Amino acid sequence: MIIIIVAAILGCICQYFALVEVLETPNWFLAILLHAIASILFAIVSYVFIPKKYKTTPYSSLLLMFLLLFTLPVLGIIGVVVALTFALCKPLKNDEIEIEEHKIPELPFEARAISANPTYSIGGLKAILKHASEPNKRLSAVMAARHMSDSQAIPILKLALKDLEDDIRLLAYSTLDGKETKLNEKISLYQQEIAVTTKQPKLSHLQKQLAELYWELSYLGLAQGALRKYVLEKAEALAEQSIEHVKTPATFIFLGRISLALDKYEIAHEYLLKATEFGMARRHVLPYKAEVAFCMNKFDDCKRYLKELPEQPKGSELRHLQEYWHE
After folding, report:
1. Segment holding 70, helix H or strand E
2. Are 176 and 158 in contact (CB under 8 A)?
3. What is d(CA 199, CA 21) in angstroms, rounded to the nearest whole number?
4. How many helices (H) and strands (E) does the chain have?
5. What angle do CA 152, 182, 209 make, to 5 degrees?
């Protein structure tokens, strides 16, 4: 660094004496010599400070900077004018890069069918609710969620309940309340029908359908805390009444899922075994058996069940689990 400072000082001194020589009694040879020495020194100083990526050819770089500095007093103004004019009038063209403009799509008020590359995914709507600064965009996200399936829409609507805007919170709350009201109305209708039905197997089918409605309240997250436990116990009781007369493998799997949600892991495992005994394909039972084994800290069994499961489609949650436990 000291050498650079000394070179800069010497360059200034040489340039000063060259200017004095020109202004007083012109000795053009001495003035040009001093100016050339100053140009060399300033070229070296400039080369030190340029980025490394431009130092691939040191001699060429030094020569270019020397020529620019040396010819600056005579050709400086003319060179800058000519260079800028030419650059603006004849810009470089790069035909290899093709830029295609696309209009930004408006947020749909109705959820579209999810394709391989959806315009707005579930995660996209959540991102809008979390990060969009304009209330209208967040409101549009809630409107779009209203036309999705319940399992997709409810997490988005619950997120909207935390929004700072009253209108957005009220819309999300009214939508959630409407979904819960519809389920409760269905539950009430099935209860009335069960009360006047005594014949089998119709009664068993009605009990199974009512149990599924109670389960849906929990599964969709519409019932929380003590209410969730209550609806799960109601679903369990109705499903148990149903299998007393009509034993189907699907009902045993259903009871296994309810027991799993109630943390009754041993009972859940027994129901899943019965589902297999009654003819349910193992590929439908193994994921739940793996979940039960994991909750019971039987990790070797969990790994074995997932290994026995046929390879799932790429991108699915079960495929991710298989890949994780296979490692």
Report:
1. helix 58-89
2. yes
3. 122
4. 14, 0
5. 85
For residue 175, which amino acid is it?
A: T
Q: Is the peptide bond before 201 cis (omega within 30 degrees of 0)?
A: yes
Per-residue pLDDT of the chain (327 residues; tens, 9 = 90+): 677 777 777 777 777 777 676 666 667 677 778 778 877 877 777 777 777 766 677 777 777 777 777 777 666 555 555 555 665 566 666 556 567 777 766 665 554 454 444 445 677 788 888 888 888 888 888 888 888 888 888 888 988 898 988 999 999 899 899 989 999 999 999 999 999 998 989 999 999 999 999 999 998 888 888 999 999 999 999 999 999 999 999 999 999 999 999 999 999 999 999 999 999 999 899 999 999 999 999 999 999 998 888 888 887 888 888 888 876
Tell me the one-letter amino acid at 239.
A
Q: Do the beta carbons of residue 200 and residue 241 sit within 8 Å?
A: no
The token duo for 56 is: 């691939």
CB-based burial label for 276 (10 Å; 0-12, 13-18, 19+): middle
Sign of the four-CA dihedral 170, 175, 178, 183: negative
- What CA–CA distance (Å, rounded) separates 129 from 98? 34
- What is the residue extent of each domain of the chain? 1-87, 128-181, 197-246, 247-326
- Burial-class residue 261 by CB neighbours within 10 Å (0-12, 13-18, 19+): middle
Which tokens is 145 given? 């969620």
Cis amide linkage into residue 51, ω under 30° from 0: no
* Dihedral Cα 66, 72, 78, 83, nearest 10 deg: 30
**Taking Cα atoms as reference points, which of 59, 20, 19, 54 lies closest to residue 40?**
59
